[in-house]
Amino acid sequence: MKKILHIISSPRREESNSTLLGKSIIEKLQAQHPGSTVVTNNVVDKNYLPLQPVHVTAYKLPDESHTPEQRKALQNSDEAVAQLFHADIVVISIPLYNFNIPAALKGWVDHVVRGGKTFSYQAGRPEGLLTGRKVYLAIASNGVYSDGPMKPMDHAEPYMRFILGFMGMTDITTYRIEGSGMAGVMETAVKKGLESVLI
Ligand SMILES: Cc1cc2nc3c(=O)[nH]c(=O)nc-3n(C[C@H](O)[C@H](O)[C@H](O)COP(=O)(O)O)c2cc1C
User: Which positions bind FMN (predicted)?
Assistant: First the structure.
């Protein structure tokens, strides 16, 4: 029995390929680990604010010295961090936007990468504090980036691998629904992407 956290970052709801792929990964995980629970965080709905002065100041202070205003401003961040600590498996559904992650997901990143909570500096070196978790990235794109000439243009997967690794999450597997804007590929893109999920 596993505790699964699903991060959704497409605004396209039922139309979203990244959400579909993430759900398919979760179905297979649930079949493998009956009784697993799923917490969903739709970061588009949650609308994590671009960091304001209050966040940046509060991030540097210990919890016990936060003012009521800082505590309130950090509520969403604290909840997002707690969700990560609670999870055994994190599935992150990502629509590729302008060769990178969407702003809604970057907002979530800015609210979970926190010194003293998800990483710390030991002897001048960063140490991730969220070790021991499995992560699946479910990436959807119109182009094909897993291989071929466009591979170097995908900044989403390398960035997510880096920033999750920075927080200690280094066991990462990527699945894709890709080529859904390319004639000759789009016809089978969804089927191929869903069938590629081996768990
Ligand atoms: C604002 C925007 C930017 C996009 N940028 C790219 C891109 O850089 N490369 C690409 O292959 N597809 C791009 N797409 C297409 C999406 O990646 C594609 O529609 C994907 O299926 C979106 O994921 P979703 O189905 O989960 O919403 C873009 C779509 C939008 C709306």
Answer: 10, 16-18
**Residue 14: pLDDT band by 50, 70, 90 thresholds?**
very high
Q: What is the CA radius of gyration of the chain?
A: 17
Is the per-residue pLDDT at 48 higher than 90? yes
Ligand 1 site residues, Cβ closer than 6 angstroms: 10, 12, 16-19, 95-99, 140-143, 180
| Dist. CA 141 → ligand 1 center (Å) | 5
Residue 38 has pLDDT above 90, yes or no: yes
Contact between 22 and 8 (Cβ < 8 Å): yes
Query: What's the CATH number where 128 sits?
Result: 3.40.50.360
> Mind listing the pLDDT tens digit for each residue in 99-137?
999 999 999 999 999 999 999 998 889 999 999 999 999
Count of domains for the chain: 1
Please count the other Cβ atoms lying within 10 Å of the Cβ belonging to residue 71.
12
For residue 60, the tally of other CB atoms under 10 A from its CB is 9
Alpha carbon distance 43, 34 (integer Å):
27
Mean pLDDT computed over every residue of the chain = 97
Q: Which atom of ligand 1 has the smallest separation from the CA of 145?
A: 11
Q: Which domain holds residue 98?
A: 3-195
Q: Is 180 marked as binding a ligand?
A: no
